[in-house]
Amino acid sequence: MEYRKIKDEDNDGGTISDDVENPRGKGFSVASVSNVPAREQSKWKRKSVVTLALTFLTSSQAILIVWSKRAGKYEYSVTTANFLVETLKCALSLAALARIWKTEGVTEDNRLSTTFDEVIVYPIPAALYLVKNLLQYYIFAYVDAPGYQILKNLNIISTGVLYRIILKKKLSEIQWAAFILLCAGCTTAQLNSRSDHVLQTPLQGWIMAIVMALLSGFAGVYTEAIIKKRPSRNINVQNFWLYIFGMAFNAVAILIQDFDAVMNKGFFHGYSVITTLMILNHALSGIAVSMVMKYADNIVKVYSTSVAMLLTAVVSVFLFGFELTLAFFLGATVVSVSVYLHSAGKLQR
């Protein structure tokens, strides 16, 4: 498998366990030990900034998606919007690189030119996300929207399991308990009068939900492995190659799903100011996700997006008249306990 290749090669560059997340790795010299407090403080601030940015962007994401609908449906092509998201992410990465080249010059770690072995791993997460996104259209034939939101929480567990298997990162028993509580809390917060229907989901729906969770978890963990394979590599270069292949696969999705509609109505048919803001939000969220994977990990990403789900519900009270239920408050409490336990478990490791 490709991820084993990622873990084993480039020994003088360090394995994943010796990346920026592990200042006590084998390659850490005695001379640099004195700088650990400053480095740790700088790394903590960087993690905090990207995590808060991801939480804010994700919480506003669902609101913009709802606003982009007209009469309860999308007038624009979802596949063209996804293509533009990848294009914008690629453009932002290039703009950031251009600024770095101007101030620091072109170096081995920030140049776009690379080897075939480095590039060949980038299409894999792009293909996985494409298949997962296509499955989302078919699962609604078996599951309603509330049921889908509940089943989507399987992604939390799959991420934890794959994080342990692929990246060989060990979670403490307290952290595993916190992870299970996070899944339970998110599910509880989404319960409503129709939630029992999820238990009546046909076998095909359950299979699709499990496959989607595994694809999402594997794509996220695999992307983290790619990004952390070479810690000194500039994140904007890595993003550029990720998004180039994302553009290619989303172009394929346009050809498969909306080719006739795009040819007859135009590429930007149904777009509005809200649609444009939604695309910008998705692009910035994608960049924030990659930075969280670079400077933190997938576990932090899962907690960030879960907290963002709760924030979205609170904001929806004022914007859409959404009513907070007792289940939501209980779920939010469980999620808060989970966050605390995860932090406590991390300190005990």
What does this structure look like?
73% of the residues lie in helices and 0% in strands. The chain is mostly helical. It has one domain (2-344). Helix 4 runs antiparallel to helix 11 and helix 8 (154-167) runs antiparallel to helix 9. It is globular, with a radius of gyration of 21 Å. The chain starts with a helix and ends with a helix. The model is unreliable at 1-36 (pLDDT under 50).
Q: What is the overall shape?
A: globular
Task: Report strand %.
Answer: under 5%
Averaged pLDDT: 81
SSE succession: HHHHHHHHHHHHHHH
Could you say which structural class the secondary elements and strand pairing correspond to?
Answer: mainly alpha
Overall tally of domains: 1
Most strands sheet: none
Can I get a quick summary?
The protein contains 15 helices and no strands.
Write the layout of secondary structure elements.
Layout: H1 2-8, H2 30-33, H3 36-67, H4 78-104, H5 116-119, H6 123-139, H7 145-151, H8 154-167, H9 173-189, H10 203-229, H11 235-257, H12 259-265, H13 273-295, H14 298-320, H15 326-348
Helix pairs in contact: 3-13, 3-14, 4-11, 4-13, 6-10, 6-11, 8-9, 8-10, 9-15, 14-15
What are the key terms here?
mainly alpha; 15 helices; globular; 0% strand; disordered N terminus; single chain; 349 residues
